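Incident log, structure service

09:12 report received: a user says their structure output differs between two submissions of the same chain.
09:20 pulled the input from the user's history:
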Amino acid sequence: MSAGHEVAGPLIDCHAHVWGPGMPFVSTAWKRPNYVYSAEDFLADLDAHGVRFGVIAAASLFGTYNDYSIRALRKHKRLRATAIVDPDVDLYTLEAMKADGIVGVRLQWFLRKELPDIGSDDFQRMCYRIRDLDMHVHLNIEGHRLVEVASKLMDTGVKLAIDHFGWHDPAPRLAAASYQGMLKLLDRGNAWVKISSGFRHPDEHFPDWSLPVEYTQDLLRRFGTEKLLWGSDAPFVGHEHAASYGMAIERLKLCVPDEEVRKRIGENGYRFYFGAPPPEPSDL
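09:34 re-ran on a clean worker, output below:
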C-alpha cells in the first residue's frame, strides 16, 4: 500500500489457509482446490484491507505436510501458523517448529467418524509438550462434541482455541447446550474462541447474520475482548463464490460495530499468537 492509500483494518487475521502449487492432498481431503492461495496472496489481501499480521491455520487437506507453512514463516515475520502433527511428535520437532513461528497444533476433527483417544499415552504426552512450550491446541469440531473433547484437552493444562464460534446448533440460539457449555469452558481460563467462518451456512442458519452477531455480543458482554480471536477464513474454500476478504471485514464490523472494541480484539489476538504486547501504531 502506498502511504497515501493506507486502510485501517483489524490488527491481525487469526485464521486463513495458504498453499502453494504441487502440494500433496491427503486421500481424505474434502476439497481439492484447483487454484493456489499462497502466503504472498494472503499478505496481499492483508495489505489491501489494512491488516498488519496474519495466522495460517493448518488445513486438513494436506495433513501433516506443514512444509509450505514453515517456509512461509521463515520468509515472512508478519505471520504465525498452526500445524497438524501426529500424536507421537517429539519435543525436538515441536521446539524447531516453534522457533520457525508455529504457535499451535490444529486438531481438525470436524465430521470425523472416530476421534483419536485423548487419553492415550502419545496424545497426553503431545498435549503436555504443547503446554510446556506455551503453544496451544486449535480445535475444530462439531458443537455436540465440543464440551466433552475440549474439557479433556484442557485438563492437561494446554491452551485451547475453539474454531468458528464452536459450531453450535443454531435453532436454540444462545440456549444451545453446546454454547452454554462453551461459556463454562471459557470461564476455566485456558480457552479462547474464534469469531470466524459464519459465512459457511448463511442460508440455513443465519440468513441475516443475526446469530454470529448475537454470539459475539454475548461473548463480549460476558468476557470482554480477552477471549475473542477474529479470523477471515480466507480463501473461503468451498464458498469462494459467496465470500470475499472484504466481506469478512464487513461482517466483523457487523458483529463488533465499535472500532475501539475491534482494536482490543486485535490486540488480544496479537498477544495470543505473537506472545508479546501489541506494537505501537508508530511501529506498524
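09:41 both user submissions now match this output. Likely a transient worker issue. Closing.
09:42 reviewer note: The radius of gyration is 18 Å. DSSP finds nine helices and eight strands in the chain.
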